[in-house]
Structure formats: C-alpha cells, structure tokens
Amino acid sequence: MIDGSASAEVLTGGGTIVTATPRLARQIQLRYDQARLAAGARAWPTADVLPLDAWLRRAWEANAVGERLLGRLRLLAENESRLVWRRVLLRGGAHRPDAGVIVPLVANGWRLCQSWGIRPQDLAAAAESDDSRAFAGWVAAYATELARRGWLDSGGLLTALGSDGTAARAAGESTLGFAGFEPWTPSLAALAAALDEAGASVHRSAPPARAGHCRVVSAHDERDELARACRWAAGHATKDSGASVAIITPDLEQDAGQVRRTALGILAPGWQLREPRSRPVALAIGRSLVDYPVVACALGVLRLLTSDASFEEASLLLRSAYLVGAEAERGSRAGAELRLRRLPLERIRVPTLLRILGEDASMARGCWRQADGLAATERRRQRPPSEWAGHFTAWLTAAGWPGDRSLASEEYQAAEAWQHLLESFAGTDEVAGTLALGAALELLTQQARDRAFEPESPARAIQVLTLREAEGQDFDALWVCGLTADEWPPPARPHPLIPLALQQAAGIPEAAPATLEAHTRRRFSRLLASAGELVLSWPAQWDETETLPSPLLAGLDGPGDEPGGTNQVLYPDRERIAASAALEACATDVAPALPSATAVPGGARVLALQAICPARAFVEIRLRGAALDPPARPLDLATRGRIVHRLFERLYRLPACSRGLGGPGTSELREAFAGLVGGVLDEFLPAGDAFLDHLRPLEEERLWALVLSLRELDKARPAFDVVTEVERRVRVGLLELSVRLDRLDRLEDDGELVLDYKTGQFAFGGWKRPRLPESQLPLYAVTAGSRGLAVIQLRPGGGLLRGIGADGLDINGMKTAAQYFRDVSLDWPGALERWRVQLETLAGEFCAGDFRVNPADERTAGGQFAGLTRIHDFLPVADDDSLPEGAEE
C-alpha cells in the first residue's frame, strides 16, 4: 500500500476513492471535475468516489450477484441496525431505549469495537462494571440475533471483507484509494491487506500539502471568535467566488443552531425575513429532520389521524402553511384556533377539529374529513412498514400536505428528505415485521429524529466543519476555532460502555492521554498543511471562564491584524445604521383625559390594574388590547375556581340554602348538591371525552368536600340571608363601573357583608397597600356602605373566613379596622374613607391617561403586552407595591 497518493492520480487511472464522509466524497468529485475542465477536457467519465458505507453496499451487491456467501446474507441499513438494537435493549430490560440516547450510544460502541477488533467474548471477559457487563450482554444478544436471522451490519461486512480478499474485490476495482480515514483502524488495515493480497492496488490518498501563511489570533470569547471567523471567511469568499473557504469549530454537534444563526446573521443579514437565494454557509452537522417545519407538520398530521394530538400540535396544524388553503382560509383557521383554546380538552381528535373549523374553512374541513375517512379503516390493522408508508403518503395527500404554495429551497429539500425517509422506512419490513399503526408511526418518528439533514448549499458556500469532517480536505482559506489548552490536546474520553483495558490494548486514541496526544499532534500537523491561508484562534474566555492557548500554538506566528479584530462589532451593518441616525425631539404625547362620569368596561379590574401597572390598564381598558387567552386545560386552577363559583351560586339560590348551608341536614344538602353538580360540570367538562369522564367523579368528590367545609362556616355564624351574583353600577371619582359580586350576605340587623370565594392563594394584607391591588370588595363596600368584607378560602379539609368589618360583628375570622390596620384610632368608617380616597386616586390617574410602567411587575406588563409597555427596557427593582403572590387568583 502506498501512502500519500493524491486522489486525482487514483481517479485518473480509473480507480475508486473510498472516503470517510459523504462531504469529502463530494469535494473530491468536485475537485476532479474542476481539474478535468481546467485541462481542456469537454467530457470525461464520472469519477468513482464513494463514502465507505456506499462502497460496502456495492461490494455486498457484487457478492450477491456472484452468489457468494456474503451475498446470501442480508445487509442491514443503518436504521434497520438501530431497530435490531432497540429490540435487543427492550428484551434486556433497558429503560426506554427508544429515547434516542441509549440506542445510539450502544450502536456506536459496537461499531467502535468492530473497527478496532474487539470481539463479543473479549467484552464479556473484561467487563468490570454493571454498565460494561450489560453492554457485553447486549452485544452478545445482538450478534446472536444477526446470526440467527442471516443478517449482517456494515461493521460486520467490513470485518468479513477484511478476511476475504476475493470477496472484497468482487466489485471489480483494480485500484482503490482511501481518503480521510484518521485514525487508520485495524479493520481498514485488514481490508487493505486483503485487497492487496487479491491483486488490487491500494492507496491511502492524501490531499496536496499547502505551505500557506499561518496566523494565531486571540478572541474575547467564543461568540466573538465565531463572528470574526465568519467575517474573515466572507471577505475571502467575496474576493474569490471560487475559493474553498472553511471554518472548523469545536462542539458543532451541540451548538449547531447557534453557529448557524450567527453565521447567517453575518453572511446573509435579514435571513430571518427572507431566505437567501443562495445559502452562503454549509454546516457539516445537520439538524434533526423533525426540526424542519414541513416535516414536523407531516408527523403532526399523522399523529392526529392515528389517535389524537395535544393542543400545541393541533394549534400548529391549524396555523400551518403546509396544508392546502392555508393562505385563503387563514382568517377562519385563526378563529378556529381561538375556539380550540377555550375547549378544556387534554387531547384533540379529528371530530373536535372538524367541529371548530366551521363552514368558513371548507377546504380544511374537506381535507381533514377525507383524510380521517381513509385512516378510520386502518387504525386497528397491523401491517408491515412498506404498506404503512403507502397509507401515510395517501393520508398526507388527502390532508393537503405540503400545501398549495411554492416551497422555498430549504422547504423543498426537507420535503424530499421526508420522502427518502419514507422509502427507507418502507425497506424495513423484514426487520420490523408487522406493526400496529401507533407502533409504526412511533418508529417512523424515531427514524426522523435520528436522521440528520442539512440543505444542499452551492460549492462556493463557506463550510463550517467539525475536525472529523475536515479530515482529508484541503482549502484555499481555513480558520480553526477553539484552540485552547484544555481541548488541544483534549482530555481522554474513552467510550463509557467498553472496558478501558480493552480500549487501551486496541490502541483507540481516545482511551489514553498519551495516544490521544500523539493522535492530536498528527491531526494538527495535517491542518497546518491543509490550507493556502490558515488562521488559528482561541477564545480568552469560554463560558465566562478564563482560558489559555493550546501548547500546540507555541512557535507559530503571534497575533496578527486580520480583518474582523476584537475592535470590530458583531454586526457592523446594524452599527452603521444606528450611527447614521439623528436624534429627534418629539413632543410629549399624552393621552386625552376622559370626561366626567365615563362608563368603562372591566369593572373593579380597571382599578386593580391601575394599582399594579397603569400602562397595562391603559392598553387593556382604553385601547381594548385583550391578551390572547392561554389554552384551557381540564380542571386547571382558573377552571376549578369558576366551577366553585357557579356551583355555590346555584346552591344558594335554592330555598333550603338561601339562609346558609347550615340549615338543611346532610342528606338534604347532598341531594341538592347531586341535582346541581352534573349540570355545572357539563358546562366546563365536555361530555364524551374518556379522560374527562374519569375526572368527573374525582371533581364531584372534591366539590362535595368544599360544600361541607363551607357548611361548617355558615353554621358557626349568626343568621343571614344570601344573595348571589349581585350586579350594581357604582361611581368612583370620574368613572362609572359595573360591579358583580359572587355573594352578598344580608345580616339580621340589615347590614351587608360582602364576600368572595378563593380556591387558591390570597394575600390578606393586600387591602393595606397604598395602591390597593385588591380593589373589588373595597370598591363595593365603599359605594354600598357595607358593614364588612371578607374572603372565604375554600379547602377540602376545611374553610377559612378572613375579613374586616365594623365593631360588633360576631363572625369568626373578622377583624376590626383597628386590628387589621394596627391603628387604634381607625374605625370602620375611617377604613371606608381610606379606601375611598385610594380608589378615587386610581380612578383619577386612569382618566388622566396615566401610562407608567411598574418595572417590578413583569407578569402584568410583560408577556404579550411587553411590546407596548417596553417592560424589558427597565431594570428590575424591589417595590412593595408589586403584585403579591396569588393576588390574581
């Protein structure tokens, strides 16, 4: 075997190049075509360049045609191999091996063993921990399963070809080159030796060495380092559109999303609003296929047709641009989404979707009805994946996927990747067997999660690579990031499941510091000779921690004045726009004051919001800026509170209960409760939902416990009459407000006690606050001359009444004004006057157009209102008048 041969020499002689990665195969193919074109050729045979897995499959197919032993075994694709691993792990008691973590770890561990000649029996003999013993057991079971079924994975095929040169040469290559393989593993060495013995000419191809200029750069932190690298790369690509420019960055697998956003922000400003015609950057690490919206929509459609979907999934489908009629019916579908938010359903089914769509969304209704009709006959069937793939395609077509608008380049490529995934899924019949519909969709979803996808970019795009993807390539300009002392050379990272002694004996570089350091130095030496212009950089801070440069940088050129230094900003175009802006003096824009006796909606909430955040009160009440309601949830805190209020409203209207729940006996009260509770629950828990049907008895039991706790409170009080849902119009300052009370008790001496129910937390001290955030009961008490106000906190184990009132009220839990305010000179009329002044002040502020923001209360001024209140422009400060915990409940 000859080392150092150029790939072009092998290809020119009609040979084949086998590469470590698909990206390297594409680059060698491109370079070969460019060289043929530069030599004046007008036509030439296509270069035979294949990634290793593709070459192995071709060798297996050649053996199958020649009816050799290897050809009679079935070669598993990667997704089929993962499926076998998942089955083995399930039988071995592993916890949720389909979680996308355990299966890849085990599969990669076995692939590592195959590459370095570690046998299953070696694993069993050397196991020294529970994890390594479990791994040895899984490997043995996996090998047994493959042998029993006559299957072969790609690692096993590579090992088999390494022991049979004739089988390895079955594809007919007389000259074979290997490119980008570092380290050179025993399995590859055995394959090369077998090919050599069988008469093939074998080479280890290497890129041409470049003795370019090298500079060392220190960046402020990793973000600054990446930004400078992108600007530098953009400068090189602009000067020479045909130049091969790349950036190597560490941890690309973990930070691919951030790297992509930063690179596009510099290389294609405004990419968030409009996809660039030609993607300027190509990442070696693709996103999971399920992360692409068009694919996520397809899976969401199938999940809903298979069984049901969460609110979030159903909401996305209603708003998705990837279903027919999305643009024409966007208004009616948005209205349907609002209706969906009000349904307290845990899971959404197709009939529910059809019901809320209405007649205005006829296209959506027709598509969903047609797709549901196709799926209805198949939900209880069991079929092989190939048949399920056909049904899935038919259902998606009926549902109108991927829509009726032209797809952008990235969307189109992702939709094509979905079709390739379905084809791959359809090929797993022999391994997967027959599957129920739910299991088939779960398997397809997992395979979409496992499949990485990155849209194709033009050849001139700037590459962002891992070190492994850069192996075997050469560049016109290369920037290598992250050359810190703790990563170059990196710490040893042996595989956690393989016994360490076996890894070190096999010579796996990551298993020992000495071998890893030597391996790192070899890779670093190749990097120094891989580019015409090379920049090596390290961040002075990493994750806010001080770092040191790698010792490998010693002796190289010091920091240079390269374009994009630390004195430049991350986004210079934005800075130029900001610098060109002139200050403009604007007149104060004060809202017009409201006239006297203005009636405004919202009731007591107007004053409560004004007390907490005047800006929110202005937006919500005067501008009618209603927030988008969060989706309803079955029996969430708000729903439970409404159920309690509705039940007690109806219960106290019964003649037997109008003088309190202490009057009727337990059996009579239970009978009255039973006659009301079903109708109340029907209003909040739609009938016919299996999950809600199981919740109803539990909620009835809870409500009965609350009735009994309230009964004990009523029995302990002097006689009174109950009036529920009292509505009155009141005047406070310049405002007229409509107030609605849950309950008003008329006492024996003709006085009134204002009451409210609370099923959650309540800040009893809120009535002391200077701005009175709890204003509903004081507002009514001030305007109606009530003798007291109180809150009943309901708990299944017992209720609690807490309130303030005039002297002489013989009610447990009531305090006098002097006791509550801790002011011996303050009586009940004084407390009412205090509240009256506070309420009139709040009303005056509101009428005057007050738009102040309380920086301490991000909950009220933030969220959907943050764009108007600009709450995030303020620094958080401590404020005693901020909304107390639970005050809105």
Low-pLDDT residue spans: 560-570, 877-889
Shape descriptor reads elongated
Overall pLDDT score: 86
Described by its quaternary structure, the protein is single chain
Topology diagram in text:
Layout: E1 2-5, H1 7-12, E2 16-19, H2 22-38, E3 48-51, H3 52-65, H4 69-72, E4 74-75, H5 78-91, H6 102-115, H7 120-126, H8 130-149, E5 151-152, H9 154-162, H10 165-168, E6 175-179, H11 186-197, E7 201-205, E8 213-221, H12 222-239, E9 245-248, H13 252-267, E10 281-283, E11 287-288, H14 293-306, H15 311-319, H16 330-341, H17 350-357, H18 362-376, E12 382-383, H19 385-399, H20 409-426, H21 429-432, E13 435-436, H22 437-450, E14 452-453, E15 462-465, H23 467-470, E16 475-480, H24 500-506, H25 513-528, E17 531-542, E18 545-546, H26 572-580, E19 598-599, H27 605-612, H28 614-622, H29 637-653, H30 666-684, H31 690-715, E20 720-732, E21 735-747, E22 752-758, H32 776-784, E23 788-793, E24 800-805, E25 814-816, H33 817-821, H34 828-847, H35 858-861, H36 866-869
Parallel strand pairs: 1-7, 2-3, 2-6, 4-5, 6-7, 8-17, 9-15, 9-16, 10-15, 16-17, 19-21, 22-23, 24-25
Antiparallel strand pairs: 11-14, 12-13, 17-18, 20-21, 21-22, 23-24
